[in-house]
Design goal:
Elements lengths: L6 E2 L5 E9 L3 H10 L5 E4 L8 H4 L4 E2 L8 H12 L5 H21 L5 E2 L2 E2 L12 E2 L6 H15 L3 E4 L2 E9 L2 E9 L2 E12 L20 H8 L4 E2 L4 E8 L11 H5 L3 E3 L19 H15 L4 E4 L5 H7 L1 H9 L9 E10 L2 E3 L11 E3 L4 E2 L12 H18 L11 E2 L11 H15 L3 E2 L1 H18 L7 H22 L8 E2 L7 H4 L4 E2 L5
Parallel strand pairs: 2-3, 2-11, 3-8, 11-18, 17-19, 21-22
Antiparallel strand pairs: 1-20, 4-7, 5-6, 9-10, 10-11, 12-17, 12-23, 13-16, 14-15, 15-16
Bound molecules: succinic acid.
The site of succinic acid has 9 residues, from helix 7.
Amino acid sequence: MGCLISFNTNNLQSIQTDILVIGSGVAGLMAAIEAAKYGKVLIITKDNLRECNTEIAQGGIAAVLSTNDSYSAHIQNTLTVGDGLCNEEAVKVLVEEGPSRVRELIEFGANFDKEKGQFLFTQEGGHSTRRIIHAKGDATGTEVEETLIAKAQLQENIRILEHTFTIDLLCEDNVCYGALVQLKDKRWVIFAQQTIIATGGIGQIYRETTNSITATGDGMAFAYRAGATLMDMEFIQFHPTTLYIAGASRALISEAVRGEGGILKNKYGERFMLKYHPSLELAPRDVVSRSIITELKLTDDSHVYLDMTHLDKKLLENRFPNIMRVCLSFGLDIRKDLIPVRPTAHYTIGGIKTDINGQTTIDRLYACGETACVGVHGANRLASNSLLEGLVFGYRVGHSAGTATNKIESFPNISNTIDDRYIEELNIEDVRNSLKSLMWRDVGIERERDKLLAGQKEIDFWSSYVLRKESTTQAGFELQNLLTIARLILQSALRREESRGVHYRKDFPQKNDVEFKRHIELGIRKH
Ligand code: SIN
């Protein structure tokens, strides 16, 4: 498939580093901090350091930190929600190494909410016990991100470059030598002994999403172009409760609200989850999201309501200060008003295939966090396991990349040629908006063959002129990445002719273990 632009590394300015980390969320920062014990690390990020999904994460971090909890319970909850597709070795690593990583984060300076010196645990769907720690009420992600940024900035071995967009990896014969990047209008080459991708998910491919504007699947797309294998791309998690008000930026209303007793109601004031699952509002997310969609059809409405009015007012003020502030800014008081909500795209379960040390199918190339797929979430992610994944696998990847031996002494010359440049008339925003609408309509919570095929045809058509042209802007590259990933999501969604986890096929509503208890892998080269 090649790269997005024409270049020749001999003709570009270059710098060298031991470890290149692309992305600055929890996984990337954790990887960088660990790798910096062994060599020079360069972190590059396409926006400012804080603009990522980690910063806006609310719920918390699930980890076995209470004497009433056990590894086996957390493992079992993760496997059950993962619906038969989890990599059990990776789940064990996640759960058993999780508490040490959380303690390390606390040593770095993170403060989690406590009462009388004890963690205040909350509950979310799929967990058999209260095991989720949180910070500043509902701003856990901000606490994690700020702590890791401060720690990274203190490391002499870490250099950080913001607003630096990675166009493509520099790969040859299945070995990665770094990346080709663009800062403002200037392009240059970063040669690295080891490269770590931690660029986050693909939420921006959907019209409705909780994700940061940076979540355009860049890492998955450039890894795919370089020949890496991607896995489980059909599994996109939809969060059941996002604020649904015209003009609101689809702000997340944390599952922890339901964990503290929030109730879902339809427009007639009925607690509809009673009809759908014995765990009611704390059923796994895919179940709650689909129940909401069914209820919307039954009641001919565009949203349902989250009712917190019966909960203790002080609890709401202390636990959910941000949610309260956002709702108040739209004239809604969570202490008195019902909050309109509906599901939106939230988390990319699939991604770049890795082993439990973050090694991809390309030498000297690692991936961690939401952009990676180690199989820890299976077909559905357990709530609040994602910050934990970033901490645990970010650390492991940083360690693997940092301690890797076999140094490259001289980097090869790499080049690529594209014949076709962008026609001036191409309206990037128009194609992007059309793609987001199509994905929302045809590749959303409920899927079926005819719609998937129609969506695929349309996206293939857009790709036929957008992907073969050479772009010059970040917006153009992002569009090309979004289209690349859309095609992979569609291919996988069409192939999985069953319903499992977050992937629901109306035309194949049952799980089919005989044919589909396996991962769907996509790649342009055989390994
Ligand atoms: C939430 O606060 O509901 C989000 C937590 C998560 O996505 O794990």
